[in-house]
Specification:
With about 220 residues, the protein is an all-alpha fold. It has nine helices and no strands. It folds into two domains: about 25-70, Arc Repressor Mutant, subunit A (Orthogonal Bundle); about 75-220, Tetracycline Repressor, domain 2 (Orthogonal Bundle), CATH 1.10.357.10. Helix 5 (about 95-115) packs antiparallel against helix 9. It comes from Pseudomonas rhizophila.
Length: about 220
């Protein structure tokens, strides 16, 4: 029986088609990630819409279909971070121990977000552009810092309603926490004294803040 000769096969060239189409949500996530990376790098020359779009692999036309301006993009970036923070402080509190436990989690996450390279980059960008781009300062303060303080103020108000601290002490407590945990580190950063904070340093500052808060404001009768 004669040997069967198989025909030679030639590998077909790989077709180069268009890249898979990403959904609007995926494109927006890529933009936010690219903006966060640009801000966190400290190289503010790269914090332009064109540069962010290139880093995200998105055309300029698509960019402006997704978001109308840099301010709007950074506003969404701040909102994305705050969405995690807003999930806290939702559980019920019935005693001083619960209050301090929940507050510790909130303050730790708040400080980590505020003192992250991304947040510090946005803070400097807002400070540098306070005259030429006042919208950035509004985003940092009203949508970031002030929103965090408002969440804390509302939650402490609920705790006061349960007798865990006095209603008239809520604002003083908020100011104390902000001063120790946020404002003082930002001042050191602005002056160039300290450029970054480790998790350990943040946790130490949170414990100091909680200790002062507990001694100054929590009613002794509410302590189990």
């Amino acid at each position: 029986m004669p040997e069967t000769v198989m025909p030679e096969t030639t590998a077909l060239p790989t077709r180069r088609g268009r890249p898979p189409v990403r959904s609007r949500q995926e494109q927006m996530a890529s933009l936010l990630d690219a903006a966060a990376q640009a801000l966190g790098s400290g190289n503010f020359a790269n914090v332009t819409m064109d540069a962010i779009a290139r880093a995200a692999g998105i055309s300029k036309k698509t960019l402006y279909l997704l978001v109308p301006s840099k301010e709007a993009l950074l506003s969404q970036l701040v909102a994305r971070d705050l969405s995690t923070l807003e999930l806290l402080l939702e559980s019920g509190i019935d005693c001083a121990e619960d209050l301090l436990s929940e507050l510790r989690m909130y303050l730790t996450l708040w400080a980590r977000l505020t003192l992250s390279p991304l947040a510090l980059g946005l803070y400097l960008l807002a400070a540098q552009g306070r005259e030429t781009a006042p919208g950035l300062a509004r985003i940092w303060y009203q949508e970031g810092a002030a929103r965090c303080l408002s969440l804390l103020r509302g939650w402490l108000g609920k705790a006061a309603g349960k007798g865990l601290l006095a209603h008239e002490d809520v604002e003083s407590a908020v100011e104390l926490i902000d001063s120790l945990l946020i404002s003082q580190p930002l001042k050191l950063f602005t002056l160039g004294v300290q450029q970054a904070w480790s998790d350990e340093q943040i946790e130490q500052r949170v414990e100091v803040t909680l200790g002062l808060f507990g001694r100054c404001f929590i009613h002794r009768s509410s302590t189990p």
